[in-house]
Inverse folding.
């Protein structure tokens, strides 16, 4: 009855874990090295223990320390460790949807308006995800868009920017 | 006291609160039923809307999702062996075999009665334990609070010790995110990278919504978590005659609820452990232990009572110490602090009406959930047929518009998308992301209390080891880290010895 996709989960010894750990720890190390650029301590008359630097210093140092074992494993190529992660491949679908999200919800709303952006995002995303029925790719996005516009614009009274493209056409 | 209860009763039964409770519960049950979504996503979707509501209504709404999610999780576990929430996995051990025998109504009755009883009993325990714990916590000073918060973090990190380094890393990352913006103590801007928007700090809502809502949705796009065409349910409603059968196991219900509440009280232990412990104890003390795993209503009942008692258990450290034990209660802490209400031992003294309103609301959530599921069982169960990837894109749209509507800033939409990418990576890596949100929420508390402690001692850090309670928590932190590591090492050494040919 239920066809549950069996997943083994990610390989806990995969070097991918170490790579991401080192990326985060490396970022923390960069911030730690450039701390004086991010926190202005010159105008602060407080002693160090009351100042704004102590806590970020502890936190960033913890991040760097936490990534050290992974860093050494990456360098030494620890036995048993490989790059095999979970066998599910690269995240093409999420990457494509992410591009649409950025296009339609950061830039799109200002250019074409919230209604058109939401509808187009749902329409194009559902098409890219493999849906082909008219109901699913056109009718439902239309209804869903109408519902969220009613909720956000008319019930909550949220202001959305006047679509730039619409303004251009009207002018 | 009576005046307080009277006022709380009035607040709890006000129309706005009832509507919030009902909506929250419906949303909770719905997201609980859908495998892969869960109450966390439901809570973060509603989070932006709660900032314009009064604290009691906002908390009722989110508590509805929190508790309702556990109710819903049992349904697909029983009908399809696909737990809606991870903790409902244990329910499927007996629920699904019962469904296969044509006894799905009995299994669902047991699961729903278990959830209801677990929820109600745990609220009673919360009402009894919270004042006691807050009286103890009232003697705490800043050093003790600092160490309690650190203890909370350590216990959560160690709960995921398979990824201990990542646990520390994510906790520290959460703590670092909490430092972005103007420092409350010195008014010095930190880590704003030259942007005006980051001067006031990063708002918790877009970060959590991005991390959990968008991240989880991106994950759902590539994973077909559940595919089901049919649902094995003979009636539209619950078979009420079966409800009485479930009430036969009163002792199991009470024991499971107590186990669940106490497990929820410990940070990081989570509802999976609660349902598993409750199930194991029920099996151990049952007259028919051999029936467990082959389809007994007692198993479903114990597991669901255990996991549904967790929300009230998690509220105990949150309300009395201001320390959330899991990601869901961390979100609730965010709502408290956004309304300038700071949970801790004085909360019960300062805001007694709010506290009693929360208690009444939690009772009502359980009542609303059982009524909803009893009357509309099939419509709710049908939700699992929705395609998860389609649902994911709908969640993204409502999440991003919700984020924009908070402060009308596209910058925050960008933050949510950025956090969504990080959340997706962490979820795919199966790192303990709960530690990130705890770090984020506890960061300002730890920093503020640590600064106060050091000011008390003129910068001398020995203040943390010269005060007995603080020292006690520090030792507990060290033991929590060291003992499991030693045990793991011994276990590994033992395995090596047994593998060596003689």
């Amino acid at each position: 009855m239920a066809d549950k996709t069996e997943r083994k989960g990610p390989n806990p010894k995969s070097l991918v874990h170490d790579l991401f750990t080192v990326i985060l720890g490396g970022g923390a190390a960069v911030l730690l090295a450039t701390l004086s650029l991010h926190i202005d301590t010159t105008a602060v008359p407080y002693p160090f223990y009351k100042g704004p630097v102590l806590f970020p210093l502890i936190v960033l140092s913890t991040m760097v320390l936490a990534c050290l074992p992974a860093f050494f494993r990456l360098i030494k190529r620890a036995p048993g460790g490989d790059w095999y992660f979970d066998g599910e491949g690269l995240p093409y679908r999420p990457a494509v949807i992410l591009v649409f999200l950025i296009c339609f919800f950061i830039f799109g709303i200002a250019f074409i308006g919230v209604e058109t952006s939401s509808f187009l995002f749902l329409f194009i995303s559902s098409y890219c995800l493999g849906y082909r029925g008219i109901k699913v790719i056109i009718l439902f996005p239309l209804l869903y868009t109408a519902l969220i516009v009613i909720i956000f614009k008319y019930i909550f009274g949220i202001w959305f920017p006047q679509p730039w493209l619409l303004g251009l056409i009207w002018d | 006291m009576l005046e307080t209860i009277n006022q709380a009763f009035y607040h709890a039964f006000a129309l706005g609160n009832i509507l919030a409770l009902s909506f929250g519960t419906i949303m909770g049950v719905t997201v609980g039923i859908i495998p892969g979504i869960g109450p966390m996503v439901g809570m973060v979707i509603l989070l932006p809307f709660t900032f314009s509501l009064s604290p009691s209504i906002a908390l009722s709404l989110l508590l509805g999702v929190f508790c309702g999610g556990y109710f819903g999780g049992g349904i697909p576990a029983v009908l399809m062996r696909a737990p809606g929430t991870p903790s409902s996995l244990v329910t499927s051990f007996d629920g699904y075999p019962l469904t296969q025998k044509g006894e799905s109504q009995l299994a669902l009755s047991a699961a729903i009665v278990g959830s209801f009883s677990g929820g109600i009993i745990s609220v009673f325990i919360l009402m009894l334990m919270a004042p006691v714990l807050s009286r103890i916590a009232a003697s705490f000073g800043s050093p003790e609070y600092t160490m309690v918060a650190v203890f909370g973090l350590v216990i959560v990190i160690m709960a995921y010790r398979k990824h201990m380094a990542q646990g520390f890393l994510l906790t520290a990352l959460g703590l670092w995110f909490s430092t972005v913006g103007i420092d409350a103590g010195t008014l010095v801007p930190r880590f704003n990278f030259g942007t005006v928007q980051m001067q006031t700090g990063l708002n918790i809502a877009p970060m959590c919504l991005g991390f959990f809502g968008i991240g989880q949705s991106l994950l759902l796009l590539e994973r077909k978590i559940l595919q089901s065409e049919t649902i094995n349910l003979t009636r539209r409603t619950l078979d009420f005659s079966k409800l009485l059968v479930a009430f036969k196991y009163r002792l199991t219900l009470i024991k499971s609820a107590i186990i669940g509440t106490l497990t929820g009280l410990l940070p990081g232990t989570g509802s999976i452990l609660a349902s598993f412990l409750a199930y194991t104890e029920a099996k151990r003390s049952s007259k028919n232990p051999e029936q467990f795993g082959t389809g007994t209503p007692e198993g479903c009942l114990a597991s669901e009572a255990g996991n549904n008692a967790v929300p009230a258990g998690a509220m105990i450290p949150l309300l009395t110490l201001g320390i959330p034990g899991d990601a869901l209660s961390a979100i609730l802490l965010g709502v408290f602090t956004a309304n300038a209400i700071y949970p801790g031992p004085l909360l019960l003294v300062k805001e007694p009406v709010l506290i009693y309103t929360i208690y009444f609301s939690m009772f009502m959530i359980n009542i609303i959930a059982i009524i909803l599921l009893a009357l509309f069982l099939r419509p709710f169960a049908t939700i699992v047929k929705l395609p998860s990837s389609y649902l994911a894109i709908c969640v993204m749209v409502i999440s991003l518009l919700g984020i924009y509507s908070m402060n009308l800033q596209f910058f925050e939409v960008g933050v949510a998308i950025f956090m969504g990418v990080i959340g997706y990576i962490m979820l795919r890596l199966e790192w303990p992301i709960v530690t990130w949100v705890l770090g984020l929420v506890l960061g300002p508390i730890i920093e503020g209390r640590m600064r106060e402690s050091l000011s008390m001692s003129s910068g001398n850090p020995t203040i943390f080891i010269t005060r007995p309670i603080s020292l006690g928590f520090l030792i507990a932190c060290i033991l929590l880290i060291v003992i499991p590591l030693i045990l793991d090492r011994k276990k590994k050494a033992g395995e090596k010895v047994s593998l060596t040919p003689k």
User: Anything to note?
Assistant: Chain B has a mean pLDDT of 85. Chain B touches chain A through 71 residues (CB under 8 Å). The CA atoms of residues 115 and 305 of chain B lie 5 Å apart. Residues 2-499 of chain B form one domain.
